[in-house]
Design goal:
The chain is of the alpha+beta class. 29% of the residues lie in helices and 23% in strands.
Length: 149
């Protein structure tokens, strides 16, 4: 699990304080909306197949391409702590990767069989990892759960 810097924590706090600046119009910090935001990013970055699932309390978003690393200056886990402009979507838009980190308690990402805890995940990660390995061979998956107040 990464150790976020003071700057990373400041960015997360900024997103939490003003979520509407980082969400599409009409969306909220509800984890269902955050799943849609991630899927939207994947679509705009060229994914042809996207899957959104619930696994117990987990939300899982996967795509046929590694949209998280695509057109980004950062790779996981840093990308989940950064505000990235996303003009391909709309003017003044930002990528959704910071949203799970700001509004969920547990965040993990996977590519194929390789899992990476972004934050939290002190319980249930082994079960999640086994499920992702079985269901999403080769896909990028972002998993998150637990709304922050």
């Amino acid at each position: 699990m990464p150790n976020p810097s003071a700057h990373d924590l400041e960015l997360i706090a900024r997103v939490r304080e003003n979520p509407r600046a980082y969400l599409s119009p009409g969306r909220t910090t509800d984890l269902r909306d955050i799943a849609l935001e991630l899927a939207n990013d994947a679509l705009y970055l060229g994914a042809e197949a996207i899957d959104i699932r619930r696994l117990g309390l987990w939300f899982l978003v996967s795509a046929s391409i590694d949209w998280i690393a695509q057109e980004s200056r950062w790779s996981p886990p840093e990308v989940f702590f950064r505000i990235q402009l996303f003009h391909a979507y709309r003017q003044n838009a930002t990528r959704a990767t910071i949203l799970p980190t700001a509004f969920a308690e547990d965040v993990a990402t996977f590519v194929g069989a390789t899992g990476l805890v972004v934050q939290g995940c002190t319980e249930g990660f082994t079960e999640l990892e086994a499920y992702v390995r079985a269901e999403y061979r080769g896909s990028r998956v972002v998993a998150f759960r637990g709304s922050r107040p």
